[in-house]
Design a protein that fits this description.
18% strand; Glutaredoxin; two-stranded antiparallel ribbon; alpha/beta; 8 helices
């Protein structure tokens, strides 16, 4: 029998492990709404600059609300692909898909175009909403320096030197804004399974 040595850790493996451990130790994301709790109403501009109020979106039916780091993130890209495939199933149960991202410079429209013109992408400028929900986290100087060495300028993407990113979080909301299901995970590699969110909305609408 051949013993295979474990794959060597990359710089990002170490940085992610340290960041996730720190976030878990600080219980990051614990203040965000959980199942059974109301999601606070908010107003943000969409990809075309029109201000959208959550309560108005909910007036048309249940909403899946997902907070993204940005389309530059490969894990966010995978999430967008998964939701593009799952969108017809969400729409069949009367749900609507809404993403929230802080990226500037037309990034919201790029996200929308990558999934469907039927979704909304809201611009959380300066991470204001994300901060209010306790979902914004500071990456740390080492992580930011590594991104910069690799040519990823977060300051240019977000228009801010704050070094903040959201904990990717996804919420299924009923028409009253009550959270039916929530996926809040400090490890940004882990994302909500679309089918779980769709099932939560289907159960609520069938009740």
């Amino acid at each position: 029998m051949t013993n295979h040595a474990p794959a060597p850790q990359t710089v990002y493996d170490v940085l992610i492990a340290n960041l996730v451990a720190d976030l878990r130790a600080r219980d990051a994301g614990a203040a965000a709404p959980r199942a059974g709790e109301p999601f606070p109403d908010f107003i943000l501009p969409n990809a075309t600059g029109v201000f959208c109020e959550l309560s108005r979106l909910l007036a048309d039916g249940p909403v899946v609300l997902s907070f993204l780091r940005g389309q530059w993130c490969p894990f966010c890209q995978a999430e967008l692909v998964a939701w593009k495939r799952a969108l017809p199933a969400l729409e069949r149960v009367g749900g609507r898909l809404v993403f929230v991202a802080a990226s500037t410079g037309g990034a919201a429209m790029a996200i929308r175009n990558s999934v469907s013109p039927r979704i909304e992408v809201l611009c959380d400028v300066d991470h204001g909403l994300t901060l209010s929900l306790g979902l914004a986290v500071y990456l740390g100087r080492q992580f930011l320096a590594q991104y910069e060495r690799d040519g990823l300028e977060l300051a240019a993407i977000y228009g801010s030197q704050a070094g903040l990113l959201p904990i990717p979080a996804t919420f299924a909301l009923d028409r009253q804004g009550i959270v039916l299901a929530a996926h809040i995970e400090p490890d940004f590699r882990s994302r909500a399974v679309p089918e779980d969110m769709i099932a939560a909305i289907a159960s609520a609408t069938a009740a």
